[in-house]
Amino acid sequence: MTGAWRSPGARWPKRIALALAVLLVVPAVTGAVALRVTYTGGIQDGTQTRGRDAIWLGHAWVDGRKKDADLDAFARRIRGTGIRDLYVHTGPLEHDGTLPAARHPGARRLIDAVHREIPGVRVHAWLGDKLATESPDGLRLGRASSRANVVRSAGQILDVGFDGVHFDLEPLHSGDRDYLSLLDDLRTLTRARDVPLSVAAHQIDPLPALHSVVGAVSGHPKWWSQAFFTEVARRVDQIALMSYDTALPVESLYGGYVAQQTVLALEATPETTDLLMGLPFYHTEEWGHHAHAETVPAAIRGVRLGLGRADRDRERFGVALYVDFAATEADWTAYREGWGCVTPAAC
User: Which residue, 70, 89, 160, 252, is most buried by CB atoms nearer than 10 A?
Assistant: First the structure.
């Protein structure tokens, strides 16, 4: 192989291989440098909590595993912070969009306890399902009957007493008109009930049309276009960008990426919609998530840098913590110290 590679006949293959290497390596290096630069600079005053933060809570809160003592401890944990909304896992939905009541037997008890013990904090039903966008099984939003079932499920869960409903449907491809149609129908319901509608959102293309390129190659687009993000954001009361699972290997690159995503999301979100940037309160190690890189301090610094550069005075802005059952004491400390508290003594 070595001799063949050095022969005159291999000149063009060598040039092609070199060109491919340049096409792959140079953009990667350039992108890394850009993200590292994005992570530099000073933090502007005023880029701290507005009292509009949220946290995703696991299913144990509605299936009977969590007790009064757990809620007491949680109430002490968040007291003085900016956490206003709890996204409590209440599903998953069935693949036809229905929601069996047996999945959330302790929901009413939890809602009453939160309202009693943590006044001012809202309890949202976190509903979701796997979508049949990249595999044959899952919820099919292209079916009108499935979308109608999702809306009925939302109505049923609001009847239980939840203060709002939060949806996380994945993998959701950019430009999905059926999803937008579903949000229109859900918004009609939530407006009639006078409760907020919120969604978890994919990240925004860091480069124009990157979702199309990656989708054509891998079948998993990952990102949304900025225009689609806007289409979603204007249909809901809250949009929480899942700014984690980036596969970035270094803390400074991750923080720079979060700063960039914050700017893109602020540009795309109407001022009448709450924008929340997700913080990684979990520590799994896999190809798409490196816990040593995707840290809470890096994410918060990135959020504050992006907020200061794009719209420092945006009022309807916060962070969302994912997820309660995987969080460490260090995560909570980083959140309090880095993002601040509405009650200064709490920090």
Answer: 89
